[in-house]
Design a protein that fits this description.
This protein is of the alpha+beta class. The chain is built from nine helices and seven strands; from the N terminus they run ααααββααββββααβα. It folds into two domains: 72 residues, Arc Repressor Mutant, subunit A (Orthogonal Bundle), CATH 1.10.10.10; 102 residues, SCP2 sterol-binding domain (Nonspecific Lipid-transfer Protein, Chain A, 2-Layer Sandwich). The strands form two sheets. A five-stranded mixed sheet has the order 5-4-3-6-7. Strand 4 and strand 5 form a beta hairpin. Helix 5 packs across helix 7 and helix 6 packs across helix 9. The longest helix is centred in the middle third of the chain and has 20 residues.
């Protein structure tokens, strides 16, 4: 399929030529959590056809946004991961995701809306890394009863299903609407704690890191 182009000498238009097609940025979002197999992407992206996913992955690979990597035995499978250019794009998507959660997302999820905790936490993980580029920590989250953990090591972050195998520096429990509101900066942590819709436990250092990473409504240009 021939890719459409805006035919404009403009950085934004050129970026949209590359990643403006439907589903493309959601593939990048999923890979922000860490390397994924093709089947992992297909399972996460509800509603995308196999041929369309293959087309989008192929184009992202050709554009240098993602790359294939063969895992050694015993895994012996192919995964896709973000390149340096892909991570640069991922960090540019963080404020876009926050904008969407702040201005376009309703407080409560409707029954027909799919949700995976990783979708909010990949954004939050990048916020942690940007605030603490030399720091490290392990954070357990339970959102709508599903466990996911973030491992932060300097500028690198991974988001993985299940509790952290070696324990966590802090644990966070809440519902999807609360977590999305907090990550977007439109819901104060103190208000969520008082309402009982959010619970945080852990070391002082870890909890301070989490709170410091949360964007505030004031964190935007006038």
């Amino acid at each position: 399929m021939t890719r459409r182009s805006y035919q404009q000498f403009c950085g934004l238009a050129s970026a949209l030529d590359s990643v403006g097609e439907r589903w493309t940025l959601l593939i990048v979002r999923d890979l922000m959590a860490g390397p994924k197999r093709y089947t992992d992407l297909a399972a996460s992206l509800h509603g995308i056809g196999t041929s369309l996913l293959a087309e989008r992955v192929k184009q992202l690979d050709a554009d240098g946004v993602i790359a294939r990597r063969e895992l050694p035995p015993p895994a012996a499978s192919t995964v896709y991961e973000l390149t340096d250019a892909g991570w640069e794009l991922a960090d540019a998507l963080v404020p876009l995701a926050i904008w969407g959660a702040r201005h376009q997302l309703d407080s409560d999820r409707t029954p027909d809306q799919h949700f995976q905790p990783e979708w909010s936490l990949t954004v939050f993980a990048r916020l942690i890394a940007s605030r603490e580029p030399e720091g490290s920590g392990v954070y357990d989250f339970t959102i709508d009863g599903e466990s996911v953990h973030i491992i932060h090591a300097g500028s690198s972050t991974t988001v993985t299903r299940g509790p952290a195998p070696g324990g966590a520096d802090a644990t966070v429990t809440g519902d999807s609407g609360t977590v999305a509101g907090v990550v977007a900066g439109r819901l104060l942590v103190a208000d969520a704690l008082t309402a009982g819709s959010l619970a945080i436990e852990g070391t002082d250092t870890a909890m301070n890191t989490l709170v410091a990473a949360i964007p505030r409504m004031a964190d935007r240009p006038n």
